[in-house]
Amino acid sequence: MSAHRPVVLITGASGGIGADLARVFAREGHDVALVARSADKLEALASEIEATGRTRPFVLALDLAQPQACEALAMALDEAGLTPAMLVNNAGFGLAGRAAMLERAGQIEMIDLNIRALTELTLRFLPAIIAGQGRIMNVASVAGFLPGPGMAVYYASKAYVVSFSQAMSQELEGSGVTVTALCPGVTATDFHARAGLETNLAKFMPAMSSHVVAEAGYAGMMKGRRLIVPGLFNKLATGLLPFMPNGILLPVMGKMQDRRKGS
Ligand SMILES: NC(=O)c1ccc[n+]([C@@H]2O[C@H](COP(=O)([O-])OP(=O)(O)OC[C@H]3O[C@@H](n4cnc5c(N)ncnc54)[C@H](OP(=O)(O)O)[C@@H]3O)[C@@H](O)[C@H]2O)c1
């Protein structure tokens, strides 16, 4: 175990925020291990990072929503002689539509990825992270601060990520390990297409670039911050919306989600 090489393990690194986090970590001198389902995109990113003079990242194509995936990931890292000194749980997806209308399997898959895999990877690698006094970052969302009719399971899954991350950060105080919840608002990635949301983001609200979100996440994680909400608009939303009475907030959120659902 002690001979293992430390890496920053980043899930959902084949695109969007996760790929930009991988670029930032690599640029700052960390060796990274990248996981997602798309082998071709992971290999392309590994080549891009290697071309900057860094060690070629370890990549593993894996569907983390599958029950045995976290075990397979742990075994693959061990066989490669790697240990996660830091963990970035970024892989996640949303589905737009009323829960009663969406397919049940997809909604359960969301829980498997956004909640179960994130929790399992955290608990599984915690002993190694504590031993190395490392850091954990979980990618939550502004959605974690309020209920989201029209995307009910997704918003609830992100509320779990915020709550779990904050509680873990308290439990680990004094251990040398920090836990950060990164809470982006609307960010220009493939997330919206997969969710079935309108992809012309400018029609609805200001969207941030995944690069800016990744830079904010890295900086905040390295400072050991518990919560990072990138962007003034998102800070205002997370600061103010939870104080709005549910009688107003729920119908407003429901109408907004209906309008954002892809036409
Ligand atoms: N974009 C936004 O507006 C926004 C806002 C707030 C929070 N977030 C959160 O940010 C995180 C990153 O999302 P993103 O915006 O960067 O979206 P994205 O571009 O769709 O990236 C999602 C990443 O997760 C991977 N992934 C999806 N399903 C997977 C599975 N079953 N197993 C393993 N990897 C899987 C995807 O790769 P493969 O398809 O290759 O598996 C991809 O690398 C998510 O947790 C999302 O909820 C996004």
Outline, from the CA principal axes? globular
Relevant CATH superfamily:
NAD(P)-binding Rossmann-like Domain
Beta-strand content estimate: 15-25%
Mean pLDDT across all residues, rounded? 95
Which distinct ligands sit in these coordinates? Answer: NADP nicotinamide-adenine-dinucleotide phosphate
How many distinct folded domains?
1
CATH topology: Rossmann fold
Query: Largest sheet at a glance?
Result: 7 strands, parallel
Flag low-confidence runs: none
CATH architecture descriptor: 3-Layer(aba) Sandwich
Q: Tally the helices.
A: 9
Task: Summarize the structure in words.
α1 (16-27) packs across α7 (210-222). The N and C termini lie far apart (52 Å). By secondary structure, this protein is an alpha/beta fold. Helices cover 48% and strands 15% of the residues. It contains nine helices and nine strands. The chain has one domain: Rossmann fold, CATH 3.40.50. The model has no long low-confidence stretch (mean pLDDT 95). It binds NADP nicotinamide-adenine-dinucleotide phosphate. NADP nicotinamide-adenine-dinucleotide phosphate binds at residues 11-18, 36-38, 41, 63-65, 90-94, 113, 139, 141, 184, 186-187, 189-191, 194, 210.
